[in-house]
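call fold(seq) -> tokens
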Amino acid sequence: MKDLSQEIRRNSTHEALGKDNNKLNAMLHCKCPVCKEGKMFKTSALNISKFNELNKNCKECGFTFMPEPGFYQISMFFTYMVGVAIFVVFGILTYLVFNDPPLWVYYVTIFVPTILSTPWNLRYSKVVMLYYFGDIGEG
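ret:
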């Protein structure tokens, strides 16, 4: 009897971990929150002119990526939070590595990573917003 209950517990744990891992993997690849297959964005993050354009619907399951008008405006807070974290981390690293360098070194070592990470920062803020506040159910 012990073996059976342990096996059931282990299988349910693996299923739960699999669902979480599948969700995280889909979020990292900017996939549809429902089917985890369709692409959320029209182009790559490296396409500077259109990196933040969403597809209207998932090509696999038809899920609408814009639940309501203005839905993604709140994602700016996540974008801001990540931007501030980048500023702080690179500012502290600059101070520690270069032993309190001149001001221009801070500008370069803080603004370059911030600007280079902007496309991903904006995209992932939309992904987080849709996954956690988009009322997608437990699909």
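The chain has three helices and no strands.
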